[in-house]
Design brief:
The protein is an all-alpha fold and 130 residues long. Helix content is 82%, strand content 0%. The protein contains 5 helices and no strands. It is elongated and about 45 Å long.
Length: 130
Amino acid sequence: MHRDKIEEALSKALSLLEEAVSMMTAKVGNGKALEDALWAASAETEYVVFLLALGLGERPEDVSTKRSSTAKQSMELDDALTSAKEFLRSAKARVEGDRFEESYEAAWSARNLLLKAQELLKKKLGKARK
């Protein structure tokens, strides 16, 4: 297992997500900066899921069919970001406790929520630009 790489990517994803939440909360910066921070957090989270899957012996094609989405259709952007942050914190704590399968589940849930958040942000920015 690539524990050091997983912990580093989780820390980076959390930091980027905190940055995105701060931008949104303070309403500073432009939509592009928020999109970029959210995309980068999503990319780091995807990397975590990949590393954990490798360590657990998961095949990429098995992942999407086995795991259900935690992203509800009626979720708001701030709720999605807050929940994703909590799942990433949980994933990090579980890696630190050598509970890699549980970390994988939490990271997968965060991944789904971040994808939903990107979709919600795109809609929100699309409406704002009109």
